[in-house]
Design a protein that fits this description.
There is one protein chain. This protein is of the alpha/beta class. About 40% of the residues lie in helices and about 30% in strands. It is built from eight helices and ten strands. The protein has a five-stranded mixed beta sheet, sandwiched between helices. It has a five-stranded mixed beta sheet with strand order 8-7-6-9-10. Strand 1 and strand 2 form a beta hairpin. Helix 1 runs parallel beside helix 2. The longest helix is centred in the first third of the chain and has 18 residues. The termini are far apart.
């Protein structure tokens, strides 16, 4: 079974093709957030280098969130379009679980943190206990709340772009109990999305392309600002 996966949930744009347990190729670009311009070019280049076409892919997958609102829409829309054109099924993969999957068979609890600005992060927690398991559901919290929740763990592995922003604070609070893997494991990897998707596809856990949608956790800043303005306007009208 051959899967094409993408991850555009952060500043990183990534695409990978995996066949069964073999990674055939992966392109990662961490240079400016120009996913709308680069993603299809990356996919076309990757498929061309592998002598494959879209119809040679059995399953399409995308990291569906949380993450950048615009980035998620680009990745999801691209995968849906490709799957529709090829008449194939899709698999939705959580961004945080894909990040945690970057550290295979780790001995400690893995906590991905994605920068959500203003000292907030998207986070969850995972563990390898015979198999890969989620032990803390995705949520949007402050970095302080995230680190405090890790105080119950003996050691914690942190991954994600939030590490670059909050590493000093995490070290200050957790000291040697905080573990940071090498740089390549910190960022989004389409190969991790592909590996999770492939496992689910083998279990029959796929979707129609029309069922795939971004998972935001919280509303966009524009939506929150609009609701705030409406709330203030309603308050003024009541006076």
């Amino acid at each position: 079974m051959r899967v094409l996966a993408v991850d555009t949930s952060s500043n990183v744009a990534a695409a990978a093709v995996m066949e069964d347990d073999l990674l055939l190729g992966e392109y990662i670009l961490n240079h400016k957030k120009t996913h709308s311009q680069k993603l299809m070019v990356m996919i076309e280049q990757l498929l061309g280098d592998l002598d494959l076409t879209v119809r040679d892919i059995d399953i399409f997958a995308a990291a569906v969130g949380p993450g950048s609102f615009t980035g998620l829409r680009i990745g999801v829309a691209t995968v849906k379009a490709l799957a529709h054109a090829a008449g194939k099924r899709v698999v939705s993969v959580g961004t945080l679980e894909a990040l945690a999957y970057n550290v295979p068979y780790a001995e400690h609890i893995i906590v991905p943190i994605m920068d959500a600005r203003r000292d907030n992060v998207f986070t969850a927690s995972y563990i390898w206990d015979g198999e890969f398991k989620e032990i803390g559901a995705p949520e949007a919290v402050t970095i302080r709340e995230c680190v405090e929740s890790c105080g119950n763990f003996l050691d914690t592995i942190f991954v994600g772009d939030g590490v670059k922003v909050h590493r000093d604070y995490i070290n200050e609070r957790l000291g040697e109990r905080a573990i940071f893997p090498h740089g390549a494991a910190l960022n989004s990897r389409a190969s991790s999305v592909a590996a999770i998707a492939l496992d689910r596809a083998k279990k029959g856990e796929t979707q129609s392309y029309s069922e795939m949608k971004p998972y935001y956790i919280r509303k966009s800043q524009a939506e929150r600002e609009l609701e705030e303005k409406r709330s203030k306007a309603n308050d003024s009208n009541r006076k």
